[in-house]
Amino acid sequence: RSDRCGWSDDCRLEWWRGGRHPGEPHQVIIILLFAFVSGVITILSPCILPVLPIVLSGAVGGGKARPFGVVTGFVVTFTVFTLALSALVQVAGISPDALRVVAVGILAVFGLVMVVPTLRDGFEVITSRLAGAVTSRSGGSKPATRTSGMSGFTSGLPVGFSLGIVWTPCVGPIMASVISLAVSQQIDGGAVLITLAYTLGTSIPMLAVMVGGRALLNRRPGLAKRAAGFQRVFGVLMILVAVAIGFGWDRQFQSTVLTVFPNYGAGLTAIEDSAAVRNALNNRNATQATEGGISVDNPPRNGRLRDFGPAPELVAEGPWLNTGGQEFSMEDLRGKVVLIDFWTYSCVNCVRTLPYLRAWHETYSDQGLVIVGVHTPEFSFERSVANVSKAIADLDVRWPVVLDNSYAQWRAYNNRYWPAHFFIDAQGTVRYYSFGEGHYDDAERVIRDLLKEAGVNAGRRRAEVPVQRYEARTPETYLGYGRTTGFISTKSGIRDAPAAYAVIRPPENGEWSLDGRWTVAREYVAAESAGVLEFGFDAREVYLVIEPDGTPGGIRVTVDGAVPADTEDVRGGVLTPGESRLYHLVGLETAGPHTLRLDVQGSYKLFAFTFG
Q1: Containing H/E element for 257?
Q2: Are the CB atoms for 454 and 431 separated by under 8 Å?
Q3: Sorting pLDDT into bands at 50, 70 and 90, what band is 494?
Q4: CB distance 87 to 185 below 8 Å
């Protein structure tokens, strides 16, 4: 940070949170400590099993410094790719699968080097020359010894680089919070420190295994004589691991292990699920003020206009929809009253605001109001231009919409919510903003006041919107492990791969469970071929975001064991999703406590429940 700030506790904490809000030093220490400990115990998790031969291979051949090269390469690539993969994919257009294929290829080549003596000798010559070049530049009194050490270190780097790419850890809440920031490209100093703490924690037992194995070989003459044989065995194992990872068999292996031993590793991430860690993460993820004075913690109330500084430029990458191909800048909109609406089409809260936006557009667009919908995706399928275009047509969105897949506009406003509304006057100044649903009378009063300031008589006629009634007592619930709450099934301890789950008791309000074989991913859950999901809710309306994913089938919907009344999406208790969007599952006459059961047949990704 700048000299103006220095390195006081307050400034260090501001850097730790990317300048977003203040915090307590002990919370920084709590998160870093638990991240480090979680990394250390990862060596015991089922996620390490598929790549264990790669780790063990560091104990044989390549010189004494090879384990340190492996660990260094692992720390660098795992940290960089965890934090920057999303940005790399978008900027360079490189597929994550392509990077994984390259890493698998490197592992296979190194396996061959360990198996074939001619290749091994040639590789040692190459690494020795590289090490010699480095040593000659740095100088030293023992070039031969230093060159040998550098050679071993250099030979370990590519293996460590590949390991950092192909390894998928069993992350808990702390690393999940970092991954969520990485996906939205909102990485800050705190995310870097957390990832480093976790990666360093993971590397310590890896290093211990490799150094300890090498020491064991050196101390036992009988084993030392067979070192070349061990090296060839581990070379073969490395080739087999590379092939397995290339075909995705590593995840199937994890799944099989956890089917046989369902409780293996289930409690390893439980140490992060403490009140201290949850409070520290919540405080870290909170936000304070932008340079223009916009604060998500203390928004204005009652439609009272204030000066929150110049509106950020329209920097979303697009494309623009509903504009006939035209792109807008804030300068283009000067002289207009502008309403920036952050939304995403599968968010029911956003969808429920559309009747009001539509009414304001119809009533005030001729008088100088311009609504700009900034579509910032919550789930991966919402990045598709085709999906957004269809949703705009289906939802009757008539105003300009710009896609914000990189979260550039989202970050420009320091936003954290769907929906969020920012009101800008004719001079380009942010004068009011609000988050979530409700307060529509205040919003319309703001629009009319800003039009009046611009010299426009809005007249007496106000926008007319049908009264909507919401009685939900169940909060929005995400199903992927990145943000889920209320999950009460037996836990498998595995993520991103099929595993067996079972219902242990009827769910209460806000609780849910799985039965059968499901994949629990960061954003969604998906039945392997058939499965059951039960959810306890207290509401009239139930919605679920679903993405079809291959094999068609259907979802049978029951409430308290009976088929509910039809909705626009469910007929006779059967839902057949055909596109990626929000589906209306249940519409009851009155709110009350109920149990929803979904019997899933086919390939569908289930993302999040919302209620009304």
Answers
A1: helix 249-260
A2: no
A3: confident
A4: yes
Query: Within 10 Å of residue 351's Cβ, how many Cβ atoms?
Result: 19
Query: In this structure, what is the dihedral angle of CA atoms 217, 220, 226, 230, given to the nearest 10 degrees?
Result: -30
Using 50, 70 and 90 to split pLDDT, how confident is the model at 487? very high
The C-alpha atoms of residue 466 and residue 14 are separated, in whole angstroms, by 45
With a CB cutoff of 8 Å and minimum separation 6, the contacts of 78 are 163, 164, 165, 167, 195, 199, 202
Asked whether residue 2 carries a pLDDT value surpassing 70, the answer given is: no
Domains and CATH numbers, the chain: 30-275 (no CATH), 320-453 (3.40.30.10), 477-611 (2.60.120.260)
Residue 582 near residue 351, CB atoms below 8 Å? yes
Distances (CA, A) of 536 to 280, 349, 516: 29, 20, 18
- Taking the CA atoms of residue 192, residue 194, residue 196 and residue 201 in that order, the dihedral angle to the nearest 10 degrees is -170
Rounded CA gap, 118 and 104, in Å? 22
pLDDT of residue 68: 86
508-562: per-residue pLDDT in tens?
Answer: 999 999 999 999 998 899 998 899 999 999 999 999 999 998 788 899 999 999 9
Nearest to 235 by CA among 123, 108, 118, 122: 108
Q: What pLDDT, on the 0 to 100 scale, is given for residue 389?
A: 92
Maximum average pLDDT range among 4-18, 137-151, 170-184: 170-184
Residues 81, 82, 83, 87, CA torsion sign: positive
- Token pair, residue 578, equals 């055909």
Closest alpha carbon to 201 in 346, 65, 336, 44: 44
| Residue 473 reports pLDDT greater than 60 | yes
User: DSSP state, 382?
Assistant: G
Distance (Å, whole) CA 150 – CA 136: 11
Cα 517 to Cα 506: distance, rounded to the nearest angstrom: 19
At residue 288 the predicted structure's pLDDT band, cuts being 50, 70 and 90, is very low
Does 569 score more than 60 pLDDT? yes
Locus of tokens 């039809």: 566
**Residue-wise burial string across 222-234, b where 16 or more C-beta atoms lie within 10 A, e elsewhere:** eeeeeeeebbbbb
Pairwise CA distance, residues 609 & 612, whole Å: 10
What pLDDT is stored for residue 334 in this prediction? 92
Q: Does the pLDDT value for residue 1 go beyond 50?
A: no
Q: How many Å apart are CA 535 and CA 511, to the nearest integer?
A: 6
Tokens of residue 600, six digits: 């899933």
Among 291, 201, 286, 289, CA closest to 27 = 286
- Dig out the tokens for 476 from the structure: 């929005």
Nearest by Cα to 312 from 432, 242, 413, 240:
413
Burial state string for 560-585 with b = 16 or more CB within 10 A and e = fewer than 16 = eeeebeebebbeebebebeebbbbbb
pLDDT in tens, 322-333: 998 888 988 999
Q: Check: CB of residue 369 under 8 Å from CB of residue 360.
A: yes
Q: What is the pLDDT of residue 242?
A: 79
